[in-house]
Amino acid sequence: MGSKTVTLKVNGTDVTLSFFVQTYFDRVLDGMATALESTCKVETMILNAKDNRVALVINGASVRLNEFVECIIFNTVQGMVSSLRGVTHIENFVIAIGPEK
Q1: Domain total of the chain
Q2: Rounded to the nearest 5 degrees, what angle is found at the Cα of 87, between the Cα atoms of 86 and 93?
Q3: SS3 of 5, please?
Q4: Which residues of the chain, if any, have pLDDT below 50?
Q5: Phi, psi (degrees; rounded to nearest 5) at 4
Q6: Quick one: which of 70, 99, 74, 90 has its CA closest to 12?
Q7: Considering the entire predicted model, what is its pTM?
Q8: In the prediction, which pLDDT does 2 show?
Q9: What is the pLDDT of residue 1?
Q10: String of b and e for 25-54 (b: at least 16 CB within 10 Å)?
Q11: By the 8 A CB rule, do 93 and 49 touch?
Q12: Helix, strand or coil, per DSSP, at residue 32
């Protein structure tokens, strides 16, 4: 089972991710998506976060999130992103997950 390619933009700037970080983000976000009702196998995912809000698109379809789920996803992923070297201040971030290159 290979990991997918993961890209991250923080405040509009690309953040370089090591293989470990890409794999970690892929698997954690895949686990979150799998826990949601009415989601299918994740081929692609875009998570867009700003102002404590999350927009989630899986396989090209927007996923509706209730307030609790949105909050737990935002806080978990923001914690992961804020732990990365070079990330000091986060206004917004976008994570894209797609097929392995």
Answers
A1: 1
A2: 140
A3: strand
A4: 1
A5: -90, 170
A6: 90
A7: 0.91
A8: 62
A9: 46
A10: bbeebbebbeeeeebeebeebbbebeeeeb
A11: yes
A12: helix
